[in-house]
Amino acid sequence: MSKIWATEHALDSMRCKASELEGLLRTSETPGVSMLPVEILGLIFEEVVISSHSSVAQRPAFYDPEISEWKATRPELLLSHSVDLIELYLARARGMPLDISFRQHLICGILPRQGCAAEYPRITNTILRHMHICRRLEIRTNVFVPELLEGLGRTPAPLLQEIILHHPRSNIWEPTLPSSSFPRLAHLELGELISISTAISTKTLTSLTLRGIPAFGLPAETFRDLLSKLRSLSHLALLDEPVDFDCSRAIDVVEVPSLRSLTLRPGPDISRLYLTGLMEMLVTPALQELTLDFTSVSSPREIQLFLRHLKREAPRFLSLRQITIDSPFEGFDIASALVHAAPHIESLSLSRYSVDSILMYLTHDARREAFPKLRELCFSSPHLDLDGLASFVRKRKDLGRPLRRLEFTGFQGSKDAVLSGPFKKLLDACLALS
Fold first, then answer.
1. Which residues contact 13 (CB under 8 A, 6 or more apart)?
2. Full-prediction pTM beyond 0.85?
């Protein structure tokens, strides 16, 4: 009986407290949602996000009060009360640095701009009002949002260090990101743009990523002028085909003495001039890392042209120390081209497609002098011939150039913890042979 009495007493106390709170809400001019603790507010926003997705596993990240990060991945989430919640979150940040990400995908409909027209000005104003405390800005949209894009160049963002901008191509607008507005900008990623102002933040930018499609990339002259102004650029990534080379025009050379890392990941339908044009244009005397990702290329023809170009000219990458190769095509040609173009590499990372053929090429007696400084091999997949690897390790030892390290990046998914350990022991056993 005492437990029943205690429970009834507790319920009476809760009812009295609820009645008191209801009275406060009725008489208060402050919206009730503003009184919620930020932890409860976070749970509400998460439920809003989940309810707009068919699968909880596919739900996007949301604003986390602990790290002051706001991410909304579909315009439906920004309608009505969702926009109110976002603005409330940003207000709760109280000047703390923010990471802002606006993602709008094709899944939102064929004409998402019409369905969300009333909310785009609010979205734009909300983002631009908080640019002064924004550290990282990500915008991915398949509709033209001129209000937001035009406001970026005019809105000071003293804390902003990274911009990721994927936006439909436009003949009437080009991104202008001046140093005066972005004094700390270090990383810039632009996608699907046909022009870019060279009046971007050139003093602090150290990393540049460009993405484009064939025949709609930046003109080669614009790309060259852009690189010539980026005197602090250390990392350059070119995805798909962001530069459009014209066969009727000569390719002017641009030297990028600060560049340390270069990533080339061409798309499925690259033009014949693209890769060779880049090699003719770029002079990178201090380049140390090169990543060649050919997994999306549909035909080996353009890759063969690129490799023949490397073998035909004088060694281009004398300063290169690390190469990562991810290619579904024959590894013999890739290896022979890189042995000539980058003879001093110390680290080689190989994908499942090319590992066996490249190791076989390097193990042959005719290639005794290939990569004399090579000390490290890294594999991104467990699918390799361990006997071939052991043979290569022995050959390096016999030549007086033993490997010092074999590394494996890990299995995918749930198998990683179970299989990576034993596989690493296999690699260690291969290395112990030397």
1. none
2. no
